[in-house]
Amino acid sequence: MSMNTLKGRDILGIADLSASELTEILELGALLKSGERSPVCQKVLGLLFSKASTRTRVSFSVAMYQLGGQVIDLNPSVTQVGRGEPLIDTARVLDRYLDILAIRTYQQEDLETFAKYAKIPIINALTDWEHPCQILADLMTIKECFGTLSGITVTYLGDGNNVAHSLILGGALMGMNVHIATPKDYQPNQAILDKAKEIGVEGFQVLVTDNPIEAVEGSQVLYTDVWASMGQESSAEARIPLFEPYQVNQKLLNHADQEAIVLHCLPAHRGEEITDEVIEGKQSRVWDQAENRMHAQKALMVSLLGVDS
What we know:
CATH architecture of the largest domain: 3-Layer(aba) Sandwich
Number of helices: 12
Number of domains: 2
Pathway: Amino-acid degradation; L-arginine degradation via ADI pathway; carbamoyl phosphate from L-arginine: step 2/2; Amino-acid biosynthesis; L-arginine biosynthesis; L-arginine from L-ornithine and carbamoyl phosphate: step 1/3
CATH class of the largest domain: Alpha Beta
Protein name: Ornithine carbamoyltransferase, catabolic
Distance between the termini: 5 Å
Keywords: Amino-acid biosynthesis, Arginine biosynthesis, Arginine metabolism, Cytoplasm, Transferase
Binding site for carbamoyl phosphate: 53-56, 80, 104, 131-134, 265-266, 293
Radius of gyration: 19 Å
InterPro entries: Asp/Orn_carbamoyltranf_P-bd, Asp/Orn_carbamoylTrfase, Asp/Orn_carbamoylTrfase_sf, Asp_carbamoyltransf_Asp/Orn-bd, Orn/put_carbamltrans, OTCase_ArgI
């Protein structure tokens, strides 16, 4: 399996993929996970992370090591990036050394600068605007559980953040219904909702509401994230009373489909956005979801590097 259409491309957001390309990545991820495909990719991956990371850093690293490649951790605190070297200079230099670069940063514009000045594939490993690699794993997990994505209803509860943005766009491409339940002042950006309507395939519907029960009713997937993302820690305490009605607990889960699963992109603040009972319960697929970060990202790198799998 080889997707020549993706070779050399940048993935700065989930909508940089077409529906067919996204489907093929998910299928390839499943084959890599099962061991039916074992491509060799002796390339060098750079990780330039300005934000803390556990799953993204480790899953990208292990994925490349398993492919036979190498990983260089470009922590800004030990590189010239942290001392103010212009991004356009860093991008052009790293382009001469690396085969592919994953960036985790605050501003989406920084990612776009790297993509403009570097020829190698640039992957969004999280910005304040989107988290496309997380959604690849989410979609892979949902498909494992239900055998399809089309027609599935996913309800996301909490802050209308980067994860919510990518989930909406991923749902639009795959024909999933996406319900977003969040306080009125924390809803997803309207530009994301407009883009979703533009790219949405037949059957896709999006609902944005401040009523968590309305959003959850009949859903096959309940999904949550921390109420205050990285960089918003100063507002975390103030957000708690606003977001408490959106906690994923057993009472709320009872309003969902009987076979519903629960997802969380982690790290979790147990007792806030999700209860211990639910994250450790029989409907939780959080650990499968975390594992699938590695498989989905491996499939993405194989595709962007043009490796024949």
